[in-house]
Design goal:
By secondary structure, the protein is an alpha/beta fold. It has ten helices and nine strands. Helix 3 crosses helix 4 and helix 4 crosses helix 5.
């Protein structure tokens, strides 16, 4: 079976790492795994650059912008060219384009739903459209029972939804260099250090965590919080 994982992303974050390592692991199976994404302004996404270095087969859909009307036709051509049996889409843009592209070919379509961001009006509109389109997919995969329950309560058939939890390979953790935060930051040896990593955006609740951390540090001077991440709320977090 030939499987295309399609992700419209211009950076290499958590979901992109999952796709890359999944493809590396699946290279030992009898399935052919391809990671696909879209080019914009002539640039190749980091996901494809990393994948190619790791000897993962890639597919670049060359478009002028996120609103390029030729995207569907080019994606459909790629499905035919690579003889794709199953396409797994991993974001609202890929869900929509993938659904339309698969309508006239033999390729089956699975949508992976990780969670929603609400960055701006444009993103909220795409999510509104995505919620209505998901019901037409052959199957939907979520990363938690809570997400599945939310979809079911919105009218999605339970039998068309599977839950696959996020996972980390222990072997990959062994390859990461260890960093001593007490040396990197001015933290006393006797201090208690709390660490969190995640996207600084509203749905993650990072700003609420900062408020709680400030109050906790006021009550216990031995307590330190270190937060790693980036995102639209980064400047708001810094102002706190």
């Amino acid at each position: 079976m030939t499987i295309l994982h399609l992700r419209a992303s211009n950076f290499y974050g958590g979901p992109e790492r999952q796709l890359y390592h999944h493809a590396r692991k699946m290279s030992l199976s009898h399935h052919r795994i391809i990671i696909g994404s879209f080019s914009e302004d002539g640039g190749k996404p980091d996901l494809l650059n990393v994948s190619e270095v790791g000897d993962v087969e890639t597919c670049l859909i060359d478009v002028h912008s996120a609103y390029d009307l030729s995207s569907v036709g080019k994606l459909r051509s790629a499905l035919k060219q690579h003889d794709i049996d199953l396409m797994c889409s991993h974001d609202y843009r890929s869900h929509l384009l993938g659904h339309i592209a698969c309508r006239k070919v033999k390729t089956r379509h699975i949508c992976f739903v990780r969670g929603a961001t609400r960055d701006d009006l444009k993103v909220r509109f795409y999510q509104w459209l995505d919620n209505r389109m998901l019901k037409r997919a052959d199957h939907v995969v979520t990363v938690s029972e809570q997400q599945k329950s939310r979809l079911v309560s919105s009218g999605y058939p339970s039998e068309k939804i599977s839950v696959v939890h996020n996972a980390v390979s222990p072997e990959e953790l062994e390859e990461i260099a260890v960093s001593d935060l007490r040396e990197k930051f001015p933290i006393a040896p006797e201090a208690v250090v709390a660490v969190t990593a995640g996207r600084f955006s509203r749905e993650k609740g990072q700003l609420f965590l900062i408020d709680a951390a400030i109050e906790a540090v006021r009550q216990n001077s031995r307590l330190y919080f270190v937060m790693f991440g980036d995102g639209p709320d980064w400047e708001s977090a810094n102002r706190k």
